[in-house]
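Ex. 9. Protein: DUF2730 family protein.
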Amino acid sequence: MTDFDLKTAVNVMQWLVTGGVALYAHVTARAAATAADVTKVSERVTALEAQLRHLPDHNLVAGLAGDMKAVKAELQAMQKAMTEAISPLARSVDRINEHLLTRK
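Predicted structure tokens for DUF2730 family protein:
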């Protein structure tokens, strides 16, 4: 082998090793970035699961909806009773008002 062939072979080997190191560094960096992303997503999922544990389930929501309907019906009945109770008083106040306005 001549000096030129040996130099060329060393240069080619140097470029191959440099390329291999660069490829290894790139793959390692991507793996680390992917691991960091997976860790972040895992933390977010854990936080969401913790928040979801505090939310009411379907049965509780259905029970609350039934209770709200009962309260609404009770309020409507009370409103009707109040209207019926106040109606004669309103008529009396209207008559007194009319009397006071026409008395002059």
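Check your answer against this statement. The chain has two helices and no strands.
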